[in-house]
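Crash report, auto-generated. Payload:
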Amino acid sequence: MKMPATTNERMLMFALGGVVGLVVLIGGILWGVVPLLDSRRAMQSSLVEIGEKLKKAKRELDYAPAIQREADDAVSQMARIRAENILRPILGSYLVGVSEQIESMARSTRVRIEEIREVGVVNIPAKGKNMSLQEFKSFVVQVNAEASFESIFQFLQKMEARNPFFCVNEIGISCQPDSPEKQRLTVRMEWPIEPSTEGGKGGGL
Amino acid sequence: MHVNLLLAEEQRSSSPVSMGLVIRLSVITVLVLLVVWVFSFYAGFRALQNQVHLVEEDWKRTESKYKAAVQLRNELADRNVTLNEITGWRDSRIAWGKQLESLLPAVPAVIQLTELRVSQMVLSLSNNVSARVFEMRITGKTEAPRSEVNVVQFLDAFKQPPFSGVVESAVLPPGAFRQDPVVKTDRIFEIICKYVPRALE
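Recovered output after restart:
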């Protein structure tokens, strides 16, 4: 290409070249460099984000064996409680099993049982205010009996030792003027039950 | 006299480095720098892409294990809630067989108990935790001489072990110590024992 002969024409050509170059440069920056920089920024933030998630996940996975052991322990504890301490219905009746327990303990402690009356199934209060346990309820009976004071506490001790989840929530002991060695006993007892897994009814008789 | 026969556009600089050379060198330097920057940017970009790809792959491998671990932790929390609730209920009971047995030696020989009542209420403590609160009402009688001393002695028994740790207060409410309407020489009394609230936790 032949250069223009005059200085003015050369200047004009350089200026034109400069303008075209500037337009190409701006176009290149806008459509080439800026998207690439945005993409790089997005990748960097994605890298940081995934890195954080990985760090958190690896920390969680480090604890996983201990959590698994703890979960296994909780499951076995709960299974033991369910097997040994939660009252099970016999043919849909909780009262049958409860009456057997009470009468057996009463015989061995010389307590004369007069009546075992079913009160029903009630909610077990939970830690939170006005809340009750979700999975468990309690089966309540009232026992009327007659025995010496010594027999009464022995009877209650045996009942309590048999099942640590068994609770006595009301007691009435009154002496009888015509027979001072015997006391009249009214006691309200409760056992935890798990109605959701058993589908059993509270009472049965 | 100095005669210049060259036209202005035919004149050349006497400098060994011409303006054209400076412009060409500048353009070449800028182009080289641009090319170097483009390559280094591209190399960095590709390295970043690879790094992102690697951590994404790592995350894909880890994610399912992580989700399982989180689920396990949540299940453990649920199980612990159930376990704590039922054991909290167990631990909030009072072993009344033992309490009644302990009461026997605490009653002075000159006092005859006529009635004993235990009742339970569920109350909310100041920290909004529910608690079982037990109350024991004991009614008895004693002979008039030294009756006051005998009853105070019985009351004091609730400040001693094994009651001191579980009984919050043992009081004789106003009007609860009076003459027996049947046997005038005897005094009857009522003691109210409030047990320490047993939180359900």
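Post-recovery validation: The longest helix of chain A spans residues 7-84.
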